[in-house]
């Protein structure tokens, strides 16, 4: 298997594991959103700041629904 395929497989497995953890913790993040979050963190975004933004966006979304 070429190295690029190995990297894709490893990335997919990582997202699979994170998705399982996310489901167990009831984070309500789908695979697509998890992938974006992982990418942002890998590119230097502070994980705590990202979590804060996600929670604030959810709160705003809930407020708009009411």
Task: Write a concise synopsis of the structure shown.
The protein is mostly helical and 66 residues long. It is built from 3 helices and no strands. It has one domain (4-64).
Largest sheet: none
Helical fraction: over 70%
- Helical stretch tally: 3
Backbone structural class: mainly alpha
User: What overall geometry do the principal axes of the alpha carbons give?
Assistant: elongated
Low-confidence stretches: none
Number of strands: 0
Radius of gyration: 14 Å
Q: How many separate structural domains?
A: 1
Secondary-structure element series: HHH
Averaged pLDDT, please? 93
Please report the distance between the alpha carbons of the first and last residues: 52 Å
Strand content: under 5%
Subcellular location: Cytoplasm, Cytoskeleton, Microtubule organizing center, Spindle pole body
Keywords: Cytoplasm, Cytoskeleton
Main location: cytoplasm
GO cellular component, one term: interphase microtubule organizing center
């Amino acid at each position: 298997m070429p190295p690029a395929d190995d990297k894709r497989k490893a990335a997919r497995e990582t997202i699979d594991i994170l998705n399982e953890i996310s489901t167990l913790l009831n984070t309500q993040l789908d695979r697509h959103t998890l992938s974006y979050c992982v990418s942002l963190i890998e590119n230097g975004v502070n994980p705590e700041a990202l979590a804060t933004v996600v929670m604030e966006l959810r709160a705003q979304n809930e407020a708009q629904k009411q």
